[in-house]
Amino acid sequence: MHLLKRVIHPSITLDNLIPAHPQCFTRIATRAIVIKDNQILLMFTKRYNDYSLPGGGVDEGEKLIDGLKRELHEETGAHSIRNINAFGLYEEFRPHENKKHFSEYSIMHMLSYCFTCDIGDVLAENKLEDYEINNGMQVCWVNIDEAIKHNFKTINNDKKQGLSILRETYLMQEIKQRLMAT
Question: CA 106 to CA 15: how far, in whole Å?
Fold first, then answer.
């Protein structure tokens, strides 16, 4: 899959990026790009006041496409997921802050595989995880320009923001440029 961007968090030195570094683990995720009637399907997270693409971690042994379908269905209630095509890979090395899982690691090597797809016309009930519910996540159809503008406002004005907002905003800009250009 085509590499869209590689990001190294400023707190991480190149010495820490040696393959198989003992403080680094790799997390593989998928992100869904669903566009319909000039709107994009996104998740809004109240806690971080940001928009993001639906998706998440791929389970061990799970194929990327299966993980994409599972995550998209769980987060949004999407069904009849079809016409799946590779969009690109966003790679990042960032501090690992979730000490509940993989507590022995301080660096996460995050690989976000992004795919475009179509879905059925009506969203079923979603099945968010407890932390997603606690963070106030909700599925919504949004004008991509409004979502990008909103995320930039959060980046510039809100002190409490997640590490993913830069990735998600970059991806939305790429989506707009490559898929929604008029």
Answer: 13
Where b means 16+ CB within 10 Å and e means fewer, 8-23 reads: eeeebeeebeeeebee
Task: Tell which residue, 90, 102, 16, 32, has the closest CA to residue 60.
Answer: 102
pLDDT digits (tens, 9 = 90+) for 72-87: 999 999 999 999 999 9
End-to-end C-alpha distance for the chain, whole angstroms: 25
Under 8 Å between Cβ of 118 and 34: yes
* Token output for 30: 């998928």
Strand partners, 116: 33, 85
Tokens coding 142:
């949004």
What topology does CATH give the domain 3-11+32-179?
Nucleoside Triphosphate Pyrophosphohydrolase (3.90.79)
Q: Which of the four pLDDT bands, split at 50, 70 and 90, describes residue 19?
A: low
Per-domain residue ranges for the chain?
Answer: 3-11+32-179
Give the pTM: 0.92
The token duo for 65 is 């496409």
Q: What is the DSSP letter of 14?
A: G
